[in-house]
Structures are given as C-alpha cells and as structure tokens.
Amino acid sequence: MESIDQQQFRTLCDQVRELAPSILKGLTSQSEKTDRILWALFERVCTHLGLDPVEQHSTIQGDTGFGLLQTLEEHMNPEFLYSAIMDEDLLMQI
Amino acid sequence: MLSRIPESPRVRNRLVAALPIDEYERLLPKFEAVTVTTKELITVEERPLEYAYFPETCVLSLLAQTDPSTFTEIATVGREGMLGTPLLFGLDTTPHRSFGQMPGDCLRIPAETLRREVDRGGPFVTILHRYMQMLIVQVAQGAACNGRHNLTQRCARWLLMSSDRVDGDEFPLTQEFLCQMLGVRRASVSEVASQFQNAGFIQYARGRVTILNRAGLERTACECYWIVRREYDQPLMATAGETR
Lengths: 94, 244
Known about the structure:
The complex is a heterodimer. Chain A is mostly helical. Helix content of chain A is about 70%, strand content about 0%. Chain B is α+β, with helices and mostly antiparallel strands. At the A-B interface, α2, α4 and α5 of A face β1 and α6 of B.
C-alpha cells in the first residue's frame, strides 16, 4: 500500500497554499473556501497515494474534510500530527 | 454557503427555540443560515469575532492552545449552545480557536447585532447568560475530569457527549481528532477504542463510530458526564419557549 509521510504532506499543503488565490477565486463563504481548499489537498493526497479521489471520497462517508482526514489516517507512515500542519500551513492562511 | 432561514415554525438550536414567540419572531430575521464543514475554522485566537454561531445540526469544537502547535479541546458546542460568548461581555476577540467538528447547518448573527441585543436586554440575553453557566460547568468539569479520571472514563464521557449532540448513535471521528479532544497520544486512544469494541460498546470502522451499547458506556464514564448532562437538561427560561 502506498503511504505518505510528514514531509510529503507538508509539500502538498505548500502546493495548495500557493494555488489558493486561484482556487478560491469568486468564493465568499468560509465554508465553501474550506471545502474547496480541502478538496484540492484531498486530490493531491489521493494522487500521491495512487488513488482515484472521486472513488476514494465515495467509499468514505462524510464531507471532503472528513474524507481527507480519514484517508491520511489510513495511509500515513510513519504516523504524524497532520492537523497541526494542515491548520497552520494552510487553513489559517485562507 | 448562505441561504434563507428555513421557514419552519421553530429552529433546532435550543437557545433560539427557547425564546418567547414575540422575541423569536423579532430576532429570527437577524440570523442567517450557513453550513459548516469539517475543519472549517470558525474563530481564530486573537482575530476579531465577526459573528456568534448557533449550531443547528453541526457540532463545533472550542480549543485552547497548549503549546505553539498543539490545541486541546475545552468544550463541544452543538445545538444546545452557541459560540461567541466573549461578545456577551463586550469583548471582540478570544484566546481560543474553534472549528467544525461535525458538518451541518448553523445559524449565525453578526457580532454588532448581538452586542445591541445585549445592551437591549430581555429574554434572549437571559437565555444566553443561562447558557454561559452551562458552558462554564462543561469547561470546569472537563478540567477537573482531565486531572482526576483515567482515559477510559474520559473517552466514554466524550463519546456520550458527542452522541447527545448529534442525536444519533453514529458519527464521524478520526483518531487524531479524538487525541486532540482528550489530549493524549494516538496509541492510547487506539487502545481504549479497542477495549470498547471488544466489550461491544462501540463499532469503529473507517472513521465512523457507532454506539452499540450506550448503557455500557454510561457505566464506564465518570460522574462528570452526568454532572454536565444535568446542567444542560435544566430549563433555559422559567416560563417560556421550549415547548413551542
């Protein structure tokens, strides 16, 4: 099974943060912004893991954020605290 | 996503639903309906509070920073409560962070509007003050519990509290989230979750918890669960509202 480590995840967060202005263009609500950013990150995490994001999302009940978190829990190796990275490097910046 | 307030006769947030009918009709247009998604930052430490949030179906988590990159939950807020209590006391920032723990619907009211309501007084403010006492009990009891009770008891308490807030026996829960909520390592959480599964109290699969034996969890939880639960079961107003 493919895996993701802390540094790889941080790199993906950095990529999404750099693209954030275009990803968020035209959006006003914080909920939509969060959802769109997390989907962009989810897509990259899935691609890194060799998973189809749409298929992966459909197998995990819940919203985009939960789908991302659960995918990380199932594939991170070694374990790391992904929330701290995601919150500070990405979600706090949008 | 913004939308009109549902035209149902009553909203699900307990604080708003408890208003006397005339106050309910006066205040409801001041709220707007929003959706909250998982991980959505609702308030950020030391940033101005723009709104107060009244959950309908979502659950919000209030966190305290314990070192530069670590946050620990100090309170959970569902449809029984509201987020933005500093506004009741004329403050416009908080040292705490909050985010969407479980996605769903929420009502929110602009900070300035809430300030005017506080100045005006009346049943809404009485209800919000009553809720403040409930929140203080939750936070204080949680602090005492974290210092005195073991992880198994605390985890059972947290699962019961979450179940109460979603009105159901199944809800999403990642292990890291539970670590953050209980302020412990992942390995410790995994061990307790396994204990509960082996005892038939819960089923945990792909980040979803299903409570199978509530009575078992209630026996396992410390008294703190009931102390907080009894506080929240108190009426919000002596004469009005909640049976509407």
